[in-house]
């Protein structure tokens, strides 16, 4: 049984993932007030849509990185625009593809650095080159993270550095703070993805 402190965070995570998945796959989405609205599945055109010039996105590895990016992170035929610290300022606007693959990568790597091999890096993550693959990868990452949380006892929630994920405050924070932070990542990137879908749908009106 999950520790009582973890239960509301698990429920929040499950609800956030369910809403985001519904927003990306349809056939209906929950508007938040119980009303359901029809929505089609995410398309490749929408996945790669660049609403403003100079976006960071997901690109074929054979191509050059996008504007102000210096590399394409990830494994496989596709990579995600990136640059080492300090990042460009102001930050580039990022496409739905960039945001979704970033979120899925974070979930999978944090799961590995909590209850897995503690070795996966961004260079190991296979970046999805299409919408259907990216939605499936989000489901895989979310499931892996949830499974890692279900192995957590009450003492582990207070353990500093329990997760060895190298790209956040994990080494300095109690694990329960990391669980909370991951929920916020899903919530805020999920809202961004939902808004990009709305903008894409309304762009020719």
From the structure above, extract its key features.
single chain, 205 residues, mainly alpha, Four Helix Bundle (Hemerythrin (Met), subunit A), three-stranded antiparallel sheet, two-stranded antiparallel ribbon, 6 helices, 5 strands, 47% helix, 8% strand, globular
- Strand order, sheet with most strands: 3-5-4
| CATH class designation of the domain at 7-25 and 41-52 and 96-202 | Mainly Alpha
Q: Classify the fold: give the CATH topology of the domain at 7-25 and 41-52 and 96-202.
A: Four Helix Bundle (Hemerythrin (Met), subunit A)
Structural class: mainly alpha
Count of β-strands = 5
Strand content: 5-15%
Stretches where pLDDT falls below 50 for ≥5 residues?
none
Inertia-based shape: globular
Most strands sheet:
3 strands, antiparallel
**Average predicted confidence as pLDDT:** 94
The CATH architecture of the domain at 7-25 and 41-52 and 96-202 is: Up-down Bundle
The amount of helix comes to 40-55%
The end-to-end distance, rounded to whole angstroms, is 50 Å
How would you characterize the overall build of this protein?
The chain is mainly α and 205 residues long. The chain has a domain at 7-25 and 41-52 and 96-202: Up-down Bundle (Four Helix Bundle (Hemerythrin (Met), subunit A)). It is 47% helix and 8% strand. The protein has 6 helices and 5 strands; from the N terminus they run αββαβββαααα. The protein has helices spanning 7-25, 44-48, 96-115, 131-150, 154-157, 175-202; strands at 28-30, 36-38, 58-60, 71-73, 78-82. Strand 4 (71-73) and strand 5 (78-82) form a beta hairpin. Helix 1 (7-25) packs antiparallel against helix 4, helix 3 runs parallel beside helix 4 and helix 3 (96-115) packs antiparallel against helix 6 (175-202). The radius of gyration is 17 Å and the shape is globular. The model has no long low-confidence stretch (mean pLDDT 94).
